[in-house]
Specification:
The structure is a homodimer. Chain A is an alpha/beta fold. Chain A is built from 11 helices and 11 strands. In chain A, strands 3, 4, 5, 6, 7, 8, 9, 10 and 11 form a 9-stranded mixed sheet that branches. In chain A, strands 1-2 form a two-stranded antiparallel ribbon. The first copy, chain A, binds a DNA duplex through helix 3.
DNA sequence: AAATAATATCTCTAAATTTGATATATGGAT
DNA sequence: ATCCATATATCAAATTTAGAGATATTATTT
């Protein structure tokens, strides 16, 4: 039972097909076939039912899959800890909301680099809900998300406190649609709650993928947005955007760094926590 | 981090030398060197301090060793369970006291074979203390040992009840030395306790490795032995051996099948338990 | 300084894995 | 029914990797 075989098993189960797995593993499909067959030969059992619809786990396949997930997870965790202990500095993969990444992280990561020069840090951005799912599934080590945080499942330290404002165009302050990130973004949820409190639940919503895009549209007069004050002030077209305060409780949002409760932080992660705790 | 590398690490740590590990792994020493180096390269850390005195784990090596032990153990347990679930029948490795193996196991294993034809069973013999150590260290799945059993660490089912007797030569019934297995054999301990109760603690003890040897010597008039009645009756030279009863509490000894409390029995093992429970 | 006992290095060979091309199967549309 | 699209399976060649065996190096002891 080799590790590569188990990884292949997971990839097939996840993508639902041999060719999909080959793609995600960056190898050819005949390879996936051969690895799965090696596993099947080893146990003398079919692991996948093949069909046009794709590959489906058999009962035995399910059991093997469950074990493989556990084992690979333990293996990865052990390796991470050891790499960390080896002084080489285990990589730290972070997630962050788009706005936080734009406004807060550059300075923070610079300070982190100063304190832990050896470690490499990678960053994925996305809305709070997606980030929490990634942390839950161990796809990333930790993430910056908007509070509040479910403390039964995640460890958290407060990282920043944002003041949310309404960014609008001076020309037509109350018109146009709400420009927001896709569902899952906590600022969008806050914006909708605010509009609801004003009896404006029917406001049209335009989804956009990036903060720059949203603020650019606001500057162009296409609508208004809810975003952290810092982000709006730092925008490219800040001079064409008017900032209006939001009433409480919508105005104040804490951003937390969160990670799985059973996740042992690597050195870079510990340093990050220290920096945040010393700073807040 | 490959599994073979971790196994090699354990072997070097256990034998205390690269060449010793090569020997125990049935490969050449240069192989061991290369595998350990692969590990060391991977983590950028020395794992062993090499010296004339042998190989000693570094601090980092100790951590890696601890993790490797855990991971390999989990891997092996998972594979065992899956092989068992696959219907192929996971192998069952048993241990047994020499006398039990000679007198009781043939019939028992035949019945087991009848009920679980697919599974393969292997057997190691040794004294009770060694067997318990092997079960503790997961070298074997289960063992037949003399009671009583520490039930906080082992699961146990009673397998047989032996009546211990004193086997002696009719010609010189009370002379000669006690012929016994080496230290760790529970019958030997019983024999010594009995002799002590008779005020004969000073009786000379001759160690022998096999039951046949012991009984052969008894027949030849070299001494006497304490052994299960069945074993003595079935001996090759039974007609030249006289059987004398032992007083209680020395006469009755239960033999148990024991296994680690955290060990999940495979199919052949479960069948064996059933047979023993149905029979006792 | 030689002898010894250990690990390291090197080359060759064997085995296993990956590739890429192609064959085969399966389900749906024409 | 036949063809088409999308899967997986098979096969031979190429590549990579690990193992064996011979030899070199190192460190310790005498």
């Amino acid at each position: 039972m080799d590790i590569v075989l188990l990884k292949t098993l997971l990839a097939v189960a996840e993508t639902g097909s041999f060719s999909g797995a080959a793609n995600s593993l960056h190898c050819v499909q005949s390879n996936v076939t051969s690895r799965i067959r090696r596993l099947e030969d080893h146990f003398g059992q079919k692991i996948f039912l093949r069909g046009k619809a794709g590959a489906k786990l058999t009962d035995f396949g399910e059991r093997l899959h469950a074990k493989a997930e556990d084992l690979l997870q333990l293996f990865a965790a052990a390796e991470r800890e050891l790499l960390d202990a080896s002084g080489a500095g285990a990589p730290l993969s972070l997630g962050s909301m788009e706005t936080t990444a734009a406004v807060r992280l550059p300075a923070l990561l610079k300070r982190l680099k100063g304190r832990s020069p050896a470690s490499s840090v990678s960053l994925k951005t996305g809305p709070t809900a997606d980030l929490l799912a990634m942390v839950r599934d161990r796809k990333i080590d930790a993430a910056f998300v908007a509070g509040p945080v479910d403390s039964t499942r995640f460890n958290a330290v407060r990282a920043f406190t944002e003041r949310l404002v309404c960014a609008r165009n001076p020309a037509n302050p109350d018109n146009g649609s709400l420009l927001a990130f896709r569902t899952g973004c906590s600022y969008r949820a806050t914006a909708q709650a605010w509009l609801k409190s004003l009896g404006r639940s029917d406001t049209e919503i335009t989804e956009m993928g990036t903060l720059d895009g949203i603020l650019g549209c606001v500057a162009a007069g296409l609508g208004f947005a809810v975003a952290p004050e810092e982000a709006v002030r730092g925008a490219r077209d800040a001079d064409q955007i008017e900032i209006a305060p939001l009433p409480e409780p919508f105005a104040t949002v804490d951003t937390f760094l969160v990670w799985r409760i059973d996740h042992v932080p690597v050195e870079a992660h510990r340093t990050l926590i220290e920096v945040l705790e010393g700073h807040s």
